[in-house]
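Handout, section B. The chain below has 315 residues.
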Amino acid sequence: MTFQLFDMDGNVFEPEKMISYELVSEAEAPCDGLRLSFSCGENIGEISVVKAYKNNKLSFNGFCDKQKITFSASGKICFIYARSSASLLVDNEAVPCQYKNPSARQLWFSNAKDFGFKMNLPELYSENSYLVPKGTSCYGAINNYVSAVSGTPVYATPENVLKTYEKNSIVKRLDDYNILSLSYVINRSEPISEIDYKINSADNYSYHFKSGFVQKMGIERKRMMNLSSIPLWQREINAEKMIEKSLAEYYSVSAVILGESDLEIFDRVIIDFDDCFNDEEFYVSELAVCKNENGEQTTVLLKKKINGEMINYVA
């Protein structure tokens, strides 16, 4: 990887004496995070924009959040932490309002166009109203609607184009990569078995969303939600999303791969490992590409999509 740092005056600095770098991407996080550490013999100004290239292709485009220069007997060491350009949408609050007959294009126009983002989202449209509560970010205003209707989250490319992740038709195999280490985790601390909610403030929590899978695994963990302030179609989705999110890390695999890899977020990966898995399919949830004095390696977090066996009822 190569990097370009732009200061407030538009001057470009290209670090040559790299000490380490780490680029982290997550399916559930709108922003990629980049950490750089390098020797800087010359003075550099206040950095505002950071770009990274992989094989001469732009792979990161973002803004510097933190810059630190350390002086020692061995010279100056500069540290940079930057988030990708989606941070613009995360850091700015959307106008609280209720959209009538919303569309993905309308939400992009209202919350992202003025920040310079282009639209390549599915042409989604709804005849229901859609509420953007106070405190919702511009990213959340778009993503909450698009992910609820399409089932996939929104992300921003390095070229500032808003897209949704697509399921790859190609299935990769983890054992095709040079695996340095692998760990398998079963996390029973997060799953929620049931959501009890109400649709009117004066009513009891008489509406229920239950996960048959979680209860079958012997886990009892209940949550209460007051959903009276949001449109009808968002109520069930919000309850279901809370359970789905709690199941996201029930089964996961973390693997350290030598060097870089061609794996991308939401890639489908088959795992055949020991007696734990027999050609079971996971998806790439997180990638961390790093390089230091020990060389370059990629840490990949894979999660298994679980059928929550959802049941919605009134009692």
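Note. The first helix runs from residue 87 to 91. Compare this with the example in section A.
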